[in-house]
Design a protein that fits this description.
Blueprint: H1 3-54
Protein name: Protein SlyX homolog
InterPro entries: SlyX
Family: Belongs to the SlyX family.
Length: 72
C-alpha cells in the first residue's frame, strides 16, 4: 500500500469521524429538546386533569337518578 493511499484513507476516516461527531451532537441536542417538550406537555396534561376534577359537577344527572319520562 502506498503512502499516498494510506494518507487518503486516514483523511477519509478523520472526515467521517468528524461528521459522525457532529451528527451525534445534533441528535443529542434534539433529544434533549424533545425531553423538555414532553415534560412540558405532561405538566400541562396534569394541570388540565386537575382543573377538570376541580370543576363543579355537571347539572346532568346520571341515568339511574333520572325520573322516567311521562309515557312510562
Amino acid at each position: 500500500m502506498s503512502k499516498n493511499s494510506l494518507e487518503e484513507r486516514l483523511a477519509e476516516l478523520e472526515m467521517r469521524l468528524a461528521f459522525q461527531d457532529d451528527v451525534i451532537n445534533t441528535l443529542s441536542d434534539q433529544v434533549a429538546k424533545q425531553e423538555m417538550d414532553i415534560r412540558e406537555l405532561w405538566d400541562a396534561k396534569r394541570m388540565l386533569h386537575k382543573q377538570l376534577k376541580d370543576m363543579s359537577p355537571s347539572n346532568i344527572r346520571r341515568e339511574e337518578d333520572e325520573t322516567p319520562p311521562p309515557h312510562y
